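User: Sequence in, structure out. Go.
Assistant: Echoing your sequence, followed by the structure tokens.
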Amino acid sequence: MEKLLEVIGLRTQFKTSAGLVRSVDDVTFSIGRGELLCIVGESGCGKSVTALSIMGLVSEPGRIAAGSILYKGEDLTRSSQSRMREIRGNEIAMIFQDPMTSLNPVFSVGEQISEALRLHKGLNKAAARAAAIDSMREVAIPSPKMRYDDYPHQLSGGMRQRIMIAMALACDPELLIADEPTTALDATIQAQILELLDALRRDRNMAVLLITHDLGVVAEVGDRVCVMYTGKIVETSGVDELFSSPKHPYTKGLLNSVPKLPETGAARQHRLRTIEGMVPNLTELPSGCHFADRCSERMASCEFGEVPLYQLDDGAHVRCRLYAEQQRSEVAL
């Protein structure tokens, strides 16, 4: 599969009064054309900062300290602001978590889609309106000609998120970054939005980077998945392989904490299984494996030195010394 985006050794840091926060710490992954890659992990693990780094939207006191972000071979970390404005929206688009904070409350939703089309495609007002209505129709907004003049507060949460998708896709981008696009929606609307995103990316052969903390979302639409913990990717594999044979103890803990219906005749489990302990402070990260203090399988070697990503025979990559002897080679993914 042709690689559309390659993130190599990305480090994004924030200087704070409490110390240096390594929000994204040596992250490497790639996305092929038409592929849907999920990044999953707890709040604060660096998922959203990774997305903002790709978009060139990290502002002070944050900065990209190291690494490359190659989009069709062009290193975005070296691109000018004017070049990034050309790329954003036109070639790489992003959907944010809360549409109410992303949509301007004083402009109609249709006008906001039209503005993006006039800016990036150079359409006149009439052509931009027609194209915006077509975009609204594509994401299943009912009566798009009427809804064009509605304001964000007049729409439901699901409809506002569809407007955000229509705005993101209006300029026909090759890569869509969706940052927890269904978090604030109920289960039925969430399923509809996920189905819509999956159908649109297949129709357009568009790559999608989907950021989520919900493993159910990963199972529903993902092709591959990266699991993040304290700014690092700890496991990468195909979605089916991740659910059938998780490797990293943190991934196993996440899967074990998902509520499950008991099998017929099996004793009911009254308490949910949890991952013991707390995520370490990002300004005081321990040496060695950052998950060691919470891991039931930790060894003495886990507490010292940088733990590399190991590539296994089944194609998975895992940052865990349990697999040091099984590796094909130490790799930067």
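User: And one key feature?
Assistant: Confidence is low (pLDDT under 50) at residues 329-333.
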